[in-house]
Design goal:
Blueprint: H1 2-7, H2 19-29, E1 33-37, H3 45-54, E2 62-67, H4 72-81, E3 85-88, H5 93-109
């Protein structure tokens, strides 16, 4: 469902099977946005965001956490870790659409387009 929602905005979607693969994919695809499950195998979402934010070429990539964890503490932890948003599964179309609009609008306003 998330893939369909993102594609409905005209975006291309690339899927990775685990966190390590996701880091490799992001380094060569250079996406505008990453939807990141916090409980990925090999490298979890927090490890992923740490690596991404340390890479100068990728550090400004927009990343939304996608998780079943939805407490206030969970949301705060994702923001503090450097995620640009927090989506709680199951995610409905209106929620993902609103987040995509927010992310893409915010990035269009930045001088370097990122």
């Amino acid at each position: 469902m998330l893939r369909q929602a993102v594609e409905s905005f005209g975006a291309s979607v690339t899927v990775a099977g685990d966190g390590r693969q996701a880091l490799r994919v992001v380094s060569w695809v250079r996406p505008d946005l990453v939807l990141c499950d916090l409980r990925m195998p090999v490298v979890d979402g927090f490890g992923f965001i740490d690596h991404l934010r340390q890479d100068p070429k990728l550090s400004r990539t927009a990343v939304l956490a996608v998780t079943a964890l939805g407490s206030d503490a969970d949301v705060r932890r994702t923001w503090e870790a450097g995620f640009d948003g927090h989506l709680v599964k199951p995610v409905d179309y209106e929620t993902i659409a609103a987040q995509l609009e927010r992310i893409f609008w915010a990035h269009r306003r930045q001088p370097d387009g990122r």
